[in-house]
Amino acid sequence: MTAFTNHFTLEFRTGIRNRTLLLMNYLFPLGFYLMMGFVMPVINPLFLETMIPAMVVFAILAATLLGLPDPLVSAREAGIFRSYKINAVPANSILSIPALTTGLHLVIVTAIITLSAPLLFDAPTPVNWSGYILTFAVTAFACAGIGVLIGVISSSTRMTVLWSQLIFLPSMLLGGLMLPYSMLPEAVQKIAQLLPATQAMNAFNGLAMGKVADFSPWGSLIILFTSGILAFGLANYLFSWDSQNSTRRGHPLLALLVLLPYLLGMVVL
Amino acid sequence: MNDSVISVKDFTKSYGDFVAVDGVSFVVHRGEIFGLLGPNGAGKTTTLESLEGIRTPDGGTLRVAGVDPTRESHKLGGKIGVQLQTSGLPDSITVDEAMKFFCAYHGVDPNFNLLDRLGLAEKRGAQYHQLSTGQKRRLALALALAHNPSVIFLDEPTAGLDVASRVDLHNIMREQQESGTTIILATHDMAEAEEMSDRVAILLDGSIKTIGSPMDITATGAGLTKVSVRTESSSLSDPDITLPAVSQQGSKDEYSVFFSTDIGPTVSAIINHIEAQRDSLIDLRVERPSLEDRFLEITTNGGSQ
Question: Domain limits at B281?
Answer without folding.
Answer: 225-288
